[in-house]
Amino acid sequence: MEKKRLYGRWNFWEEFVGYPMMIYFWIGRQKIHERLRSRIEKAQQKSSKIILDEKLRNEFLIRYEKLDNFFSFHFKDIAESRNHNFEEKIQYCLDQYKKESNSLLSSSNLMKLQGNFLNGAETTLFLYFALEGKTSREIRLSDIMIGDDSSKIFIAFLKEKKFIDENQNLLVDQKSSFIRIHRFLKDNHIINPDFQDTTIIEAMENEYNTNFDKGTFSRAITVKPNDFEENIYQELSKLLDIKY
């Protein structure tokens, strides 16, 4: 995470406030992992009161993806791994905090880091728990596409073109073209551009019962579309009312 965004502008007078606050937290208050545990419990309690319908779920997904604080930066990074449980992910974030805090010589920056970490944890985990705890349904194209019928029209088109079978299993071997088609929809705001590529990959994997690794996705969207893909874009433009 960019240091300037995390710590802001340094003012020398902040150090006079920072050192007493540091001593107070070291001596009279809980350690960082205990304070983090308190924030986790608070986020869980707050999220348990949420009634999550589809509209709110999509809003929370967008808010979660737009989070930009020290905790969310590391938590969202490790959360993509399916090889770690929740406690291991929390420990990873704590390790990153300790690594960053050990490199600081400024008391004011240490206090800013601590506040950013704890407040960020509560905000991030509230959305995380709300999304994880209230629905077991996997994210699908209908969750990230704009328009009530867009996903239905698009799926029917893919079946007609033999990209997928009747059960929506991917039929084509060349995934790059398939990825670029979805990127075309994002560029033209049929797939909501607020969603990051990682969420689009997840929706595609759930929709088509196959894997799309991030490396393949990243490489595919940098390649210029071929004539076949341009024809597909033209057809989709007519179907989905895209100005192309």
How would you describe the overall organization of this protein?
The protein has 244 residues and is an all-alpha fold. It has two domains: 3-131, no CATH class; 141-240, no CATH class. It contains 13 helices and no strands. It has helices at 3-7, 14-28, 32-48, 54-66, 70-79, 86-102, 107-134, 141-144, 150-160, 175-187, 197-208, 214-220, 227-240. Helix 10 packs across helix 12. It is elongated. Mean pLDDT is 83; it is low at 12-19 and 24-30.
Fraction of residues in β-strands: under 5%
**Sheet with most strands:** none
The Rg value, from CA coordinates, equals: 22 Å
Q: Return residue spans where pLDDT drops below 50 for at least 5 consecutive residues.
A: 12-19, 24-30
Domains, number: 2
Average pLDDT taken over every residue: 83
Helix content: 55-70%
Q: What class, by secondary structure content?
A: mainly alpha
How many strand elements?
0
Our count of helices gives 13
Global morphology: elongated
Topology as a string of helices (H) and strands (E): HHHHHHHHHHHHH
Termini separation (Å)? 37 Å
